[in-house]
Amino acid sequence: MKKILEVQNVTKRFKNGRGIEGINLTVNQGEVFGLLGPNGVGKTTLMKCIVALCQPDSGSIFIHGHNVKEQFEQALKSVGTLISGVEAIDYLTGYENLLLISRLYPEIETGRIEKVLEWVGMEEHKNEKLKSFSTGMRQRLYLAAALLAKPSFVILDEPTNGLDIEGKLDFQHLISRLAKEEGVTFILSTHLIEEVERLCDRVAILSKGKIIGEATKNELEKNKTFESFYIDCIKKRKEVG
To answer: What is the pTM (predicted TM-score) of this model?
Structure first.
């Protein structure tokens, strides 16, 4: 199976002591890989390291075999991202924000904007300015932006934050369809066990900046639930200290 993402012994620590330490993980082509853990354990830090929004203190990250630090353009060429803390422009409409992004990708046809807006349920609001958007509407637009350039690999940091139940179900259906029908690979971070359970082929548990457990959906269906697996990992972490 082709490796899309390889994270090799990556550490990033901040002055307050938070961050990630010794992270190793692989995401294979066509997978939906979940990174599960509560807020503040390093999920966003890892995502930002993957897309070079911050530099690791040590370790290496490869996307499609390209070193993110040394071969940034090649590594990120076919990657879509939705990362916490990245904002769009409030005085532009939803459509205008996507049009601005599309100019970075000359190969994107105009009709692609309409398509991704329809996918995320924002076609009716495309001519409204972003400053009037709710949190959920903004999140839908950010997802549309992540899918705009027809990426083969998409990185999603807490993608359903602010979405209502209908929005979450729409998101889950879209991700599942893109993975199964178009072979798009996803890595997503979340603190919601039910989201991982519904979407992910494989999951890693992150606690205090370290991965403390990893399992495939098939393994869990044979032996235990995602919730019990998560609880077991946390217990073992506490026992080890």
So the answer is: 0.89
